[in-house]
Write a structure and sequence with these properties.
This protein has 353 residues and is of the alpha+beta class. The chain contains 6 helices and 13 strands. It is rod-shaped and about 185 Å long.
């Protein structure tokens, strides 16, 4: 009996030791890395003229690489150039008017006005003396008609002299400030029209807003371009990302800013570095492009893995495989935003692959 109890105790201790070794000492299998499958995605822009005219040239073809500011297409600008020349001529004329008003009355004009006043004073004096003689001769048989004519001439000369004296006063005072302000305002309006026409003339050239690849050429020379009618479709080459979907059970294995590695069938020996830049805050059903019925019923979260692609290998819609590094990203400094938007971050700093 005593031997049996000792045997059972030894057996229990051995069993406990085995369970502890199996639980804590048994080599655990390393989990498979998180692998996602998705497609290359990028943004596109519909490039259109900000004006309406006949298209005169389309300078690039589909597939061409373009740089910011590069001229892609032009419109007929002959009418705008003529209007601009007319507007510039009006500016020159109005500038002359402003200069004349600001300079005031010339000295020669003032002297001329004074001479005119002196001349009219002499004529008035002569008319008054003539009227006095006629009045003295009236009893001697001078006709009433001649006397009336002499009186009328005196009134005419006095009115002319008053007008000349007012003109001299205006010449001495110079232009009114209101007239100068009006002329300056007209000049600014003319200059504003010149700037507007220069802008319209610049709008006859369609320029690339950023680097990219021409996907579609939608107009041809001779077409009539209108506002909002696209001439080209531009695929923006930066940024590029892989749009993939993570099943809900694996969501905890993906972290914002985590490093990832991207491979494609087109370049099997090339591994591109990327990083998790966006994790959707909302769950959704697996997109219908996933044909497996079992996967279509699962809740997934969209993620974007931004890719550094300096050689421009990736193309829109290209299938890609992503292996996510589950190690937490460096936390020495906050990750700056790769671009505006919720849940996006820049690549973590560290050694390359």
């Amino acid at each position: 009996m005593k031997k049996r109890a000792v045997f059972l105790l030894i057996l229990l201790l051995a069993l406990a030791a085995f369970i502890g070794w199996w639980r804590y000492g048994w080599p655990q299998a390393k989990p498979e890395p998180l692998t996602l499958y998705g497609n290359v995605d990028l943004r596109t822009a519909q490039l259109a003229f900000d004006g309406e005219a006949i298209v005169t040239s389309m300078r690039v073809e589909e597939g061409a690489q373009v740089e910011p500011g590069q001229i892609l297409a032009t419109l007929d600008a002959s009418r705008k150039r003529a209007e601009l020349d007319e507007a510039k001529a009006l500016v020159d004329a109005q500038e002359a008017v402003v200069r004349r008003l600001e300079s005031g009355t010339r000295e020669q004009e003032i002297e001329q006005a004074r001479a005119h006043v002196a001349s009219l004073k002499a004529k008035r004096t002569n008319a008054e003396q003539k009227l006095q003689r006629y009045q003295r001769l009236a009893p001697a048989g001078l006709s009433q008609e001649e006397l009336d004519d002499a009186e009328m001439q005196v009134q005419v000369e006095r009115a002319g002299l008053e007008e000349a004296m007012q003109g001299l006063a205006l010449a001495l005072e110079g232009p009114r400030q209101e007239d100068i302000d009006e002329a300056r305002a007209r000049l600014e309006a003319s200059r504003a029209r010149v700037r507007l026409l220069e802008r319209w003339l610049a709008d006859t050239e369609l320029r690339a807003p950023s680097p990219g690849t021409i996907r579609s050429r939608l107009l041809e020379p001779g077409d009539y371009a209108t506002r909002g009618r696209a001439a080209y479709t531009l695929a923006l080459t930066d940024p590029k990302w892989i749009r993939a979907y993570v099943p809900e059970p694996s969501l905890g294995r993906v972290r914002q800013g985590s490093r990832a590695w991207v491979t494609t069938d087109s370049f099997p020996g090339v591994r591109l570095e990327g990083w998790v830049g966006f994790i959707s805050p909302m769950a959704e059903f697996t997109p219908k492009s996933v044909e497996t019925a079992e996967l279509r019923t699962q809740l997934v979260y969209e993620v974007r893995i931004y890719v550094a692609d300096p050689q421009d290998r990736l193309r829109l819609g290209m299938p890609a495989t992503v292996v996510v590094d589950e190690a937490p990203p460096p936390a020495a400094a906050p990750l700056p935003a790769a671009e505006s938007g919720v849940g996006q971050s820049a690549p973590p700093k560290g050694p390359g692959p």
